[in-house]
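Subject: Sanity check before I submit

Could someone independently write out the structure tokens for this chain? I want to compare against mine line by line before I put it in a report. The sequence has 146 residues.
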Amino acid sequence: MNNTENMKVKARLPDGAIAELRLQLSWDKDRELYQIALTDSSENVTCFPATDLYQAMQALREHLETQGCQLLCAGARPDVAPSGMSRDMGGGRQAYFLQLGKQATELVDIFAYADPSVVGTVQQQRKFVDAWWASWKAQPPNRGHA
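---
Independent answer below. Compare away.
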């Protein structure tokens, strides 16, 4: 079963200006293939295929970062990442807000708008997620919910 969704998201350009980007999300659950297609102002399309939308978003973000741009979406926050179950069952569209030392409980759509002051690079996100895992594993076994 193939599905597509067109959307517009915001990005911060190298000069600090905010621009709107046109994305097309597509997924084929039978083949477990997800893709984000970016259409630029010249109608050129760049595709970012992956095993889930979060991974495709990371590839899109890395592409934008090489041009000095940042995607202004919740999935671009260093403190946001999907669970394995979210990635397996929902294609990584929903992700958790993470707080060091606490269990993640609050979900957000990775394409929801995020203020420029809270987004980061893919590398910053990976480092924060690693730090979160380390802080979570360091908690006592009876830690319960945050």
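---
OP: Matches mine. For the report I'm noting this point. The chain is about 25% helix and 30% strand.
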